[in-house]
Known about the structure:
Elements: H1 9-19, H2 28-47, H3 52-68, H4 71-77, H5 80-94, E1 111-112, E2 116-118, E3 120-122, E4 133-141, E5 152-157, E6 179-183, E7 189-195, H6 207-214, E8 224-230, E9 237-242, E10 265-268, E11 281-285, E12 288-289, E13 307-308
Parallel strand pairs: 1-13, 2-6, 3-7, 4-11, 4-12
Antiparallel strand pairs: 4-7, 5-6, 5-8, 8-9, 10-11
Bound molecules: 3-methylcatechol (MBD) and fe (iii) ion.
Amino acid sequence: MSAKVFDTKEVQDLLKAATHLGGANGNPRFKQILHRLLGDLFKAIDDLDITPDEVWVGINYLNKLGKDGEAALLAAGLGLEKYLDIRMDAADKAAGIEGGTPRTIEGPLYVAGAPLRDGVSKIDINPDAEAGPLIIHGTVTGPDGKPVAGAVVECWHANSKGFYSHFDPTGAQSDFNLRGAVKTGADGKYEFRTLMPVGYGCPPQGATQQLLDEIARHGNRPAHVHFFVTSDSHRKLTTQFNIEGDPLIWDDFAYATREELIPHVTEKNGGTALSLKADTYKDIEFNFSLTTLVQGKDNQIVNRPRVSATA
Ligand code: MBD
Ligand code: FE
């Protein structure tokens, strides 16, 4: 069956009717987007001769995706979240905004509401026998290179099994384990005392991994730590760094790796005095350089549904 029908009046009228395009009421922006996306789907079905059986595989996949709660995970795995970063980078470049710590994707595993502390926070709450101590620290500066006081650095990462608290299928972690928030003082400094994370892997029975299997891709990320950095007088930064030496650094299923986001890991002694679980610990210095507001506004705030909890 290769007859092409997309350009017929019947199909074009159907698309307009189904999306209520040109009809009264409704959300005009949503109508515009839906009309375009549905039209692109119809056209792809025509062009690639996608069979009814194949269409129903796709429809039922959406049911599984929703049931598994993995739509945002799939968005990361298909590079859609990276694509949004590429567009924001390009918009910044076009607006002449340069410098600053590079952004990279938020991912689906942030939880709002971590306890806010001044300067330093110890965020490993639950014991993790496999994980060694790690100190992450640095300075938040503005475009002028001066420290930013009153900035809030939020941090979240996985445990030694690659699981995040709140999303841990083993139930081994309390709500804000390995999640924290620190407010900088006049020196712009922040510090998290924590444990070394291990890379994340998609749930093996989930919809995302099912799709990746079909195209022979893995669903793993290198070990990494996420950050939000917010300040009243600067744009919010969403970023991550990778743990140097992880073999998946340039093979991240979510495409979040950037050259500037792989800080050196050094080994230090003196952890006992800092009440870490061992005297020898890993140390990562990672500084944040923020960018200024654009005409007084933060034009890179992303609104998306986020889990929140109370500490
Ligand atoms: C993660 O930890 C993550 O950061 C992303 C982007 C996707 C899945 C798990
Ligand atoms: Fe992550």
